[in-house]
Amino acid sequence: MEHRCCVRKPMKFSVLLYKHGLPVQSGQSLNIGLDGMYVAAAGWRRHEQLMVEFTGHQGAVSMRIPAIVVHRREDGIGLMFDEVTAGQRRQLRAWLFSRSEAMTAGEGDDSVVADQRAVA
């Protein structure tokens, strides 16, 4: 049964996951919405608190959003965004709707990250 409040869009792009302020794993988003996302990343338990870093143009950090692991599967983890500021929500909304067509059309790396070892 679906419990999401917002629709998710299929978008593939790289993210960096932080735990306790340290970058610990890179991942590949598979879908994203205003309330959360699904990331191809392994090794996380339900209810773990993470920080998701989205990278912008040419690798510049665009924002970091706190998130909670709400479910996990073999191919990845479902994250629910937590404590999103109004500014982050505006930026996320603008980014989602301005980039969604480009990202789903193949901009960037469409391959799922195969090697998901810790980076820290």
The largest sheet, given as strand count, sense and whether it forms a barrel, is: 6 strands, antiparallel, barrel
Low-confidence stretches: 100-120
Element order, helices and strands?
EEEEEEEH
Shape: globular
What is the C-alpha radius of gyration, as a whole number of Å?
A: 13 Å
Q: Tell me the total number of β-strands.
A: 7
CATH architecture: Beta Barrel
State the CATH topology: Thrombin, subunit H
The assigned structural class equals alpha+beta
| Oligomeric state of this protein | single chain
The CATH superfamily turns out to be: predicted glycosyltransferase like domains
**What CATH first level would be assigned?**
Mainly Beta
> Helical amount among residues, as a percent range?
10-25%
Question: How many individual domains?
Answer: 1
Could you give the distance between the termini?
36 Å
**Strand ordering within the main sheet:** 2-3-4-7-6-5
Portion of residues in beta strands equals: 35-45%
Question: What is the residue-averaged pLDDT?
Answer: 78
Number of distinct helices: 1
